[in-house]
Structure formats: C-alpha cells, structure tokens
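Morning run. Coffee first, then this:
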Amino acid sequence: MNAKVSNISRTQARREAAIHVHIGMQIKRARGAAGLSEQALAAKLDLPVARVAAIEDGTERLTARALFNIASILGRSVSYFFDDLAVEPAPVMTSGAPVPVTQSARLAETNALIAAFYRIPDIDTRRDVIRLVRGIAEDL
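And here it is:
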C-alpha cells in the first residue's frame, strides 16, 4: 500500500512540476515579448536574477500573488500563463456513470476553459458561450 501512495505522490509531483515548467516558459515568452531582460524583470520584482531564472525554468514555485505581480509587469492576464497547458482527458462514460475525475484534472480543464474563453475578443460571443454552457449544464 505504501508503494501505491508513493507512486501517486510521484505522479502528482511530476504533474505539478510540469505545470511550473509551463508557467515558467510562458513567463519567459512574455518577458521577451515585452522587451525585458531577466535583469530588468528581476529589478521590477525586487528579486535576484537567479531567482527569476529559476522561475523561468520551473524550479521556483510561485504564489498566486507573485504570478499576479509578474502578469501585471508583463501586461498579461494571469490566464495567459496557463494557455495551452496540457490537460488530462475528459472522464470516460461507462454504464452511464462517469469515471471520477481527479481534482488536478478538474483544475487543468477549468484553467484551459478560462484561457480559451478570454481569447474570444468579442463580448457578445463570450456571452453566447456562457448561455450555451449553462444550457448544456441544465440539460444534464
């Protein structure tokens, strides 16, 4: 039983590490697009350059507040950093009952949905999407 718990913990740790690497790559991409060097971003965040490098390579974990600050400096929404984040597949239906979805899968799906939603530039189209999703949910 301990081996199973250990495997679950390692799998979860790998997923979390992949998320941090993805966010770091997005930060690096946004920093480059903003024309900032690592040194300039570090100065704006009042952090050592080595820490910014660690954030960008995914070894430094960020708090929500730190990610919000970085997003503000780089002129991006927080959801930008989750764009194109790979998500676990949707639950498979068996015998009419859905297979339970893990919390991390729900979070990844939610983040992907939010990121895609905010890429829709037209407010009326976003409202139509909301009505569509509510209609589908009410039919379930």
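The domain at 2-88+95-139 is CATH 1.10.260.40 (434 Repressor (Amino-terminal Domain)). Good start to the day.
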